[in-house]
Design brief:
2 copies of one chain form a homodimer. Chain A has 239 residues and is an alpha+beta fold. Chain A is built from 9 helices and 10 strands. Chain A has helices at 3-12, 17-25, 84-87, 107-116, 118-144, 147-164, 179-186, 190-202, 218-225, and strands at 30-33, 38-40, 48-54, 57-62, 68-74, 93-96, 100-106, 172-174, 207-209, 212-214. The first copy, chain A, has a 4-stranded antiparallel sheet. In chain A, strands 1-7-3 form a 3-stranded antiparallel sheet. In chain A, strands 8-10-9 form a 3-stranded antiparallel sheet, covered by helices on one side. The longest helix of chain A has 27 residues, at 118-144. Chain A is globular, with a radius of gyration of 18 Å. Chain A starts with a helix and ends in a 14-residue tail after the last helix. Chain A binds a DNA duplex (30 and 30 nucleotides) through helix 8. Chains A, B: Residues 145-219 form the HTH crp-type domain. Chains A, B: Keywords: DNA-binding, Transcription, Transcription regulation. Chains A, B: This is Crp/Fnr family transcriptional regulator. Chains A, B: Residues 33-113 form the Cyclic nucleotide-binding domain.
Chain lengths: 239, 239
DNA sequence: CGTGTCGTTGACAGGGTTCAAAGCACGTGG
DNA sequence: CCACGTGCTTTGAACCCTGTCAACGACACG
């Protein structure tokens, strides 16, 4: 189950056997969350960081008028709040968008890793930096891409991220997200999401049914999105 | 000159004398960049990380049609590309918005810090995580705030960040940024930036002249912006 | 005094929001 | 087996926020 994290790390750099053991020793208890439940509450001070094993989760901020903005989506193999180990207090919440299965890594043990294993420390640092890269890409999409490109870009991102943890079957992946949630991701209205999806569908760029996304022509979708996967930093490097 | 970085760190956690020495030993040569010059080129593989001593810089992405989106602003005391130490390749550029004065920290030395000084490593990690927090806040502002609130939020952020490095005089700070650049920050048109500024000015929330921003009533501006400085993580904590 | 940069303004088009209602799939209970 | 409720998607219409275009003014500089 923890393999998705290992594979997330291995994609970016080799792990020694002791590294891998240290990763496995990190986790204590598991948890399950129902769709709609908060995994981490805004303002809280977690003592564990949460590895998502299965499910779809999101970091989000709420505004006073009830508007919600999602700032990143998390899939299996992602730490949803590794940054809290250093930041201490959550400046946003993390919600389970579908039923989620998680593992908890006590900050005490993460602390030990940073004291004893510099390489693994840098690898964990890396994971949080990739979150940052994704943030920047989203900012760019929200500010300067037309909505079709934004949507296409998001789909490409999820395709590559699911592929990295081996969850692509054919040109298809499970992506059980409602249009209302998608609207909170993209910062637009649900109506607009719906109409944009219809255009992408009628252009033959996307088939989206029963919580599954199929990409008939990845090349075409990437062109529309001006997608460059560099920002996901899948290259294996000595870090 | 390097004091702004020290103060940035000290705001967040105590530094021991050896920590501080290690910080000072990190830097090698200085550089100067003219306004408009790239400090770091997108796609490059820096071997140094750049500390901004003085000036205003920005991380940015360009789209094919020439549109630009700025993803974060940097002021004195910020590392503009500390993340490149771990990410290796730049997925965006960094540009000098005004004349900039910088110091270079060789990655070789940063590597040594991560091998020898776990606490300082976590402090540097922290700096990159705060960049991430700022990204999330910007995403929220772009997606779900009305433009007045977005602008107010940005001004509040810069006010708090300048204050942390002691660059607030009275209720005033130097912020020599054109409206066109501001448009690339907020992801809107220059015309719209101009009209929004006029509203804020006529509401008495902002005085902006000769590259200086004055905030007559910080409380009122924060209320409009729904500003909560938590995300800048100025609290001193044991990290 | 000409040139260039930046800020300001007005008119107009259109992209995107809001509101409201209808359609659809699915599970539940009678 | 059907009626009904629920959550999600789809549609249409009115409205307005925001972008584009184009021009002008203010100012610094050589």
């Amino acid at each position: 189950m923890i393999e998705s994290l290992i594979s997330n790390l291995r994609t970016r750099d080799a792990l020694t056997a002791p590294d891998e053991d240290a990763v496995r020793d990190l986790f204590q208890h598991e948890n399950r969350f129902r769709a709609g439940e908060d995994i981490v509450v805004q303002g809280s001070r977690p003592v564990n960081s949460t590895l998502l094993l299965e499910g779809l989760a999101a970091r989000y901020r709420l505004l006073e008028d009830g508007k919600r903005q999602i700032t990143v989506l998390h899939i299996g193999g992602d730490f949803v709040d590794l940054h809290a180990f250093i930041l201490k207090q959550m400046d946003h919440g993390v919600i389970a968008l579908t039923d989620c299965h998680t593992l908890a890594a006590p900050h005490r043990r993460l602390q030990a890793v940073t004291e004893e294993n510099p390489h693994l420390t840098r690898m964990f640092w890396l994971l949080t930096l990739i979150d940052g890269s994704i943030h920047r890409e989203w900012i760019t999409a929200m500010g300067r891409r037309e909505i079709k490109g934004h949507m296409a870009h998001l789909i490409c991102e999820m395709f590559y991220r699911y592929r990295a943890v081996d969850l692509i079957e054919g040109q298809t992946f499970r992506f059980p997200i409602t249009q209302a949630i998608l609207a909170d991701v993209m910062g637009v209205s649900t109506v607009h999401v719906n109409k944009t999806l219809q255009i992408l569908r009628s252009d033959g760029l996307l088939i989206w049914k029963d919580g599954r996304v199929q990409i008939p022509d990845l090349q075409a979708l990437e062109t529309l999105a001006e997608f460059d996967p560099l920002y996901l930093h899948f290259q294996s490097e000595s870090r």
